[in-house]
């Protein structure tokens, strides 16, 4: 599929292209040159083939009195309102598949701007050995497309094809991916296709046809995916990250906020387009509606559409059991958290098969038990669960090391794909508050919106003045990992325990999860749960006690176990002390 968005570099000229169906006239503005008119070419397109405008040419478009960058700019000079720069595609790597099989993913979520002192692609590249040595096999990078200012979570982007100048160049990003691959680390990029950031969103001003004016997201007007050209923009973006930058996969943010009638068509074709670029790409969705059909498998075991979904259900119940906090998706006091945990471990989702028709986000539809364990990405912390707290604190500030080790044990050794947030491997306490970098008039609106969001969306009863100023540089600095902290005895000890868990996953889980999972069976005894996943290669079993009291259970351990916490065995009786778990695997008999 040849791109139709962005400049096309020819032998001695560049074709500039802009989709603006409602425009009366469009001009190309080049740095230091007289404006060049573009010609209407049908289907809403404006084009001009301009000699002498090769790589390095700085340009904008002009409609009326509005000058703006190319929405498909591959490189920016001067921020999201600055010059777009012509650049040729990066050379392909020649790889048509992901670095490793998906079931081998042990994922660390990383924010480039705070993962190193430099806050850059180069800074992260120079620290990749830490992630490899910790036991990770993949990094999931929060969005890196151009955003306003020098600091941002990444979800307020308006130019989706251009890597953020604050992090480095296109070549720097490709070098980061290449180095990760040399070290055996797969790379996933988080992309946002459900909205644009509202600052420097020129599209809304000159191309209202891009948006469905009758649909709102929590962040602004919804995108009109009924239009073929609009859908094509995102297909091309996904392919660029997979082909030019050689990412192994993509994580699609909040697909449940895509509300147009063409959502099904868009998501299905998005997956097909990405797989045409990299046939076994790791395609991960965030979807509170828990639509299991997007995760269905072919007869061969490969995904029909998407590879996996972030599993909030798993997080919510484990978070409640560990902390007692009845929020973050677990406000219903009538729920039985032990039963919900049992269902999450065996079936994947807690909330499924509960709703008919359209879900309201608290009840979900489509039973998930038919899905394999690796259709779910499970975690006890991520950027949302930390950053959308008023205090922006991580679990080590609320839990002792033994309880956090229990959470890591269960997440790492269950056959679902585990994800951890950067620094979690060493029980780091670095805050991760929400941060932006905007002019003061725009920052004031964002501050007010943040208080509304915390109160209404995240159930945080904050008073005015309670939250850190998201626009203050010191708020951003508080989120930056302090790499000297890894030298502390407590951090080194936690990291050693994490490495052991990762080694156990390779030894006990990978040999089984490389084969199809045919069933999952579970049983509850008091507060304890025993879950067995039946793979063609053998059986993986886990007994866990997510409570503060010891539990005696009847349980036959058929192979040498590994464990966290304290347990003892007496014949066919297993005593699990508070917050302890045992795991073992039995290979298939000949």
UniProtKB/TrEMBL annotation:
SMART domains: Aamy. Keywords: Carbohydrate metabolism, Cytoplasm, Glycosidase, Hydrolase. It is an enzyme of class 3 (hydrolase). Its EC number is 3.2.1.141. Residues 104-499 form the Glycosyl hydrolase family 13 catalytic domain. It comes from the Bacteria. It catalyses: hydrolysis of (1->4)-alpha-D-glucosidic linkage in 4-alpha-D-[(1->4)-alpha-D-glucanosyl]n trehalose to yield trehalose and (1->4)-alpha-D-glucan. The keyword Hydrolase applies. It is found in: Cytoplasm. Pathway: Glycan biosynthesis; trehalose biosynthesis. Belongs to the glycosyl hydrolase 13 family. This is Malto-oligosyltrehalose trehalohydrolase. It comes from Devosia salina.
